[in-house]
């Protein structure tokens, strides 16, 4: 995302979440930015994931994945890595049951990304499209960033949105998001401090931190550490 995109993302999230539905807001904004027909977010809460989405179809598709135990989101939760399926009907996808149901719902391709808080896997963000084909590099990068934002949004605002979370140990070994995109403890603390100082939600606080890091060409962790050490005060 370019620097201006961070502010646009903050504005979109603020507008979309005015009713308090942070999870739904993130899903709707993700659908727009990723040019996806549907985006669903599944949060790991007990035996059955809690699901929100950009549409009723997004919710139904995601719930169906966990019901049949097959699909990109299921693979991502099981292995802790992004699962990119540009053609669900292809034999190589290995999802014959879900592929039939997805096709009936108008879904031909799906891309799932893990939601992480530190080393803990807390859920999955899944974008689906009616047309077969891969995500381009820009959309792939945006999806990684949105997954990081979604993790903080859903965990930080869990009580307000009604979406509960139980952080579980990370699965799948090495972190699939890369060191610059995974949110460590110092970032979580900084997000909370910025949210409190500016009287804004955790989603916008994370966006502000990332925007500042991008504009100043500094690593996110360094900016977060400066906020925690009270060496940096972000302004409205």
Q: Any low-confidence stretches, pLDDT <50, length ≥5?
A: 157-183
Q: What does the main sheet amount to? A: 5 strands, antiparallel
The H/E string reads HHEEHHEHEEHHHHH
Instruction: Give the overall silhouette.
Output: elongated
Number of strands: 5
User: What Rg do the Cα atoms give?
Assistant: 17 Å
Task: State the CATH class of the largest domain.
Answer: Alpha Beta
Give average pLDDT, whole number: 78
Structural class: alpha+beta
Helical content stands at 40-55%
Strand order of the largest sheet: 2-1-5-4-3
Strand content: 5-15%
CATH homologous superfamily caption of the largest domain: GAF domain
Structural account:
The chain has a five-stranded antiparallel β-sheet with strand order 2-1-5-4-3, sandwiched between helices. The protein has helices spanning 3-16, 22-33, 56-68, 72-79, 96-104, 137-156, 158-161, 185-198, 202-216, 220-228; strands at 38-43, 50-53, 83-85, 109-117, 120-129. It contains ten helices and five strands. It is α+β, with helices and mostly antiparallel strands and 236 residues long. The model is unreliable at 157-183 (pLDDT under 50). It has two domains: 3-161, 2-Layer Sandwich (Beta-Lactamase), CATH 3.30.450; 185-228.
Q: What is the structure about, briefly put?
A:
The chain is of the alpha+beta class.
């Amino acid at each position: 995302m370019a620097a201006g995109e961070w502010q646009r993302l903050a504005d979109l999230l603020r507008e979309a979440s005015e009713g308090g539905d942070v999870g739904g807001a993130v899903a709707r904004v993700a659908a727009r930015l990723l040019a996806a027909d549907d985006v669903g977010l599944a949060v790991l809460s007990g035996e059955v994931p809690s699901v929100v989405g950009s549409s009723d179809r997004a919710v139904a598709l995601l719930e169906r994945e966990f019901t049949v135990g097959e699909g990109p989101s299921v693979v991502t939760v099981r292995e802790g890595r992004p699962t990119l399926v540009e053609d669900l009907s292809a034999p190589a996808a290995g999802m014959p049951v879900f592929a039939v149901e997805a096709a009936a719902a108008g879904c031909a391709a799906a891309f799932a990304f893990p939601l992480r808080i530190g080393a803990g896997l807390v859920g999955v963000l899944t974008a689906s499209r009616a047309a077969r084909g891969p995500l381009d590099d820009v959309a792939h990068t945006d999806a990684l960033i949105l997954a990081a934002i979604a993790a903080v949004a859903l965990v930080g605002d869990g009580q307000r949105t009604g979406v509960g979370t139980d952080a579980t140990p990370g699965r799948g070994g090495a972190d699939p998001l890369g060191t610059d995109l995974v949110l460590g403890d110092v970032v979580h603390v900084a997000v909370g401090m910025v949210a409190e100082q500016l009287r804004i939600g955790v989603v916008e606080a994370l966006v502000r931190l990332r925007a500042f890091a991008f504009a100043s060409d500094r690593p996110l962790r360094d900016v977060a550490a400066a906020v925690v050490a009270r060496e940096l005060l972000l302004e409205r």
